[in-house]
Amino acid sequence: MESATVLAFMGLGGQEIFFVALFVLLFFGAKKIPELMRGLGQGINEFKNASKDVKENIEKSMEDPK
C-alpha cells in the first residue's frame, strides 16, 4: 500500500502532515530525528520478525497432527 493511500485512509492531508512534521522538528530537534527514525525502523523490523515467527508456529502446529 502506498504511503499516500495510508495517509489518506487515516484522514491526513498535506497540511496536517506538514504540521505534524513541524511539531516533531520543533519538539525533538533536527539532530534527534534520525535517531528516532532509526529506533522506529528497528521496532517495525522486530514486530515483523515476531509476527513471522508466530505465523510459522501456527502453520507448523496445524501441519503436525498430535
UniProtKB/TrEMBL annotation:
Predominant cellular place of this UniProt entry's protein: membrane
Coiled coil: none
Keyword flag Transmembrane: yes
Keyword Cell membrane among UniProt keywords: yes
Compartments, record wording: Cell membrane
Record keywords: Cell membrane, Membrane, Protein transport, Translocation, Transmembrane, Transmembrane helix, Transport
A UniProt-annotated Pfam family: TatA_B_E
Listed InterPro entries: TatA/B/E, TatA/E
Chain ranges passing through the membrane: 6-28
Domain of life from the UniProt record: Bacteria
Membrane topology field: Single-pass membrane protein
Family, as annotated: Belongs to the TatA/E family.
HAMAP family associated with the record: TatA_E
Role: Part of the twin-arginine translocation (Tat) system that transports large folded proteins containing a characteristic twin-arginine motif in their signal peptide across membranes. TatA could form the protein-conducting channel of the Tat system.
Subunit-level organization: Forms a complex with TatC.
Name of the molecule in the record: Sec-independent protein translocase protein TatA
Origin species: Dyadobacter linearis
Classification lineage: Bacteria, Pseudomonadati, Bacteroidota, Cytophagia, Cytophagales
